[in-house]
């Protein structure tokens, strides 16, 4: 019985260690899970990782830039230029929109809330 | 009482007990931890008991009866799918560990509890198309193991008390 | 026995996979000059498309009715009413309903929420686009033409008693439209969905993994708290949502009718209420009212609220923390 008990204990400890390892891994994964979602007239156009610098041309309408963990609209063909003047965004739920062109740029986070207000 | 009659009676008894325990668990307040799917799984004591006192097929029958009856009486259909997945994975793990002969009912039940939660959350992630709910897995693993171990201890205590009767 | 069990098992799994709802999402950028997001759990993509199309269509229809910038063929919308310069028009029932509700809210908010404030608001709107400050003398003159008692609703007819007056439904239209669109989606069989019309959020049912989670932004950045709702509406009015800067000073979009300048009592106010139209009007009213008056108003509607004051401190109604 005591031999079995020792093995039981080893099994339980092994499962708990595995759980803790998974927890640590998921914490790392969560940080890398931030991404930039670009939509054109509602349709998903591109998803870019937030931690990798990139420049994306959206059908010649807007240029979306990801730089040092932030994203912004660098240039746009729209008239009011509200999107170009918007400060760079980096937090989950923040959006820069170019409504005349129907382009939205949103920072998304894996496991975050459904909406941000 | 013939051996066959005794086994059928015991099977019925365990199924009924299993159902009673499910009902008791339903009345317990939900744990305020904010992780879906965490519960004590008391009814699993009966599945473990059937596995040890009767055999794999009888244990599978108790398990399936528990899941289906729960769904018919108090559950939702989505809950049924989670339970089926959890029940199947948990049962397979417990059967294998018991057959290995390396563990007591406590270890078998603890691993079963953890496996139940793995099966449940995997199906939930698949069906909802929301892989991020797998982030709950570590908490579910730890809690499932603890609950399973406690259930195993309860069964071990029960087994001590009922085994003399078996011989008589 | 064994075979029977296996067959039962297989059948349950098969029917289950088909009936199980999946998460779908759609974004619209062409209504209410904001970003709208519709998320729902549906059995099939076709089911979601049908719901999404209905919601989008309803929002478009209401957007045209409440629009004060554009005219539409054969529609006596808010712009037509503003342009009629005192003459009576026969607008759609929704516009009459929102105007009547606006008159009630004027009383409820002690004059702070005024849909007849269009003349002043359009001057601010114009200045925001130009990046300049409005002339205080001009603002005072414009404010002479904001007497809501001159908005005459008589059956199906509406007339603005002052030809220089104009309506601006911005503080109420999005919440009202979100409510109507959600009711439509519900009547079409939608059970688990959330609709955000520029931050006016309406929820129905729950996600398979639990309630809908809505992050409330800290005006200085980051997330202040997360509220969990299933069926309620959530709206935030904040000075960080729409603003422009002149000479390093920020001017946001919620104008206090008494000072004619952006309100400075609060950084943001979040409201949780049963009805999205109420929630929208409440959040604007509470943003303009002192704490005690705001609390009393929220209580009238059984709503919960969270205020962020300029020094960064956070005040909650008693029941707000039940949602956190």
Question: How would you characterize the overall build of this protein?
Answer:
The complex is a heterotrimer of chains A (117), B (168) and C (324). Chain A has helices at 2-32, 82-85, and strands spanning 35-40, 43-49, 54-58, 62-67, 70-76, 95-98, 103-108, 115-116. The longest helix of chain A is centred in the N-terminal third of the chain and has 31 residues, at 2-32. A 4-stranded antiparallel sheet of chain A has the order 2-1-7-6. In chain A, strands 3-4-5 form a 3-stranded antiparallel sheet. Chain A has 117 residues and is of the alpha+beta class. In chain A, strand 6 (95-98) and strand 7 (103-108) form a beta hairpin. Chain B has a single domain (3-167), classed as Arp2/3 complex 21 kDa subunit ARPC3. In chain B, helix 1 (3-27) runs parallel beside helix 3, helix 2 runs antiparallel to helix 3 and helix 2 crosses helix 5. Chain C has an 8-stranded antiparallel sheet with strand order 1-2-5-6-9-12-13-14, with helices on one face. A two-stranded antiparallel sheet of chain C has the order 3-4. In chain C, strands 7-8 form a two-stranded antiparallel ribbon. Chain C folds into 2 domains: 32-43 and 193-323, T-fold; 76-160, T-fold (Orthogonal Bundle), CATH 1.10.3980.10. In chain C, helix 2 packs antiparallel against helix 7 (173-187). Chain C is built from 9 helices and 14 strands. Chains in contact: A-B, A-C, B-C. Strand 8 of chain A pairs parallel with strand 7 of chain C.
Q: How is this structure best summarized?
A:
The complex is a heterotrimer of chains A (about 120), B (about 170) and C (about 325). Chain A has about 120 residues and is α+β, with helices and mostly antiparallel strands. Chain A is about 30% helix and about 35% strand.
List the helices and strands and how they pair.
The complex is a heterotrimer of chains A (117), B (168) and C (324).
Chain A: H1 2-32, E1 35-40, E2 43-49, E3 54-58, E4 62-67, E5 70-76, H2 82-85, E6 95-98, E7 103-108, E8 115-116
Antiparallel strand pairs in A: 1-2, 1-7, 3-4, 4-5, 6-7
Chain B: H1 3-27, H2 44-53, H3 56-74, H4 77-100, H5 105-128, H6 137-167
Helix pairs in contact in B: 1-2, 1-3, 2-3, 2-5, 2-6, 3-4, 4-5, 5-6
Chain C: H1 2-19, E1 22-28, E2 36-42, H2 45-66, H3 78-83, H4 93-108, H5 118-130, H6 136-143, E3 151-154, E4 157-160, H7 173-187, E5 193-197, E6 200-204, E7 212-217, E8 223-229, E9 233-238, E10 243-246, E11 249-252, E12 268-273, H8 276-288, H9 291-300, E13 304-308, E14 314-316
Antiparallel strand pairs in C: 1-2, 2-5, 3-4, 5-6, 6-9, 7-8, 9-12, 10-11, 12-13, 13-14
Helix pairs in contact in C: 2-7, 7-8, 8-9
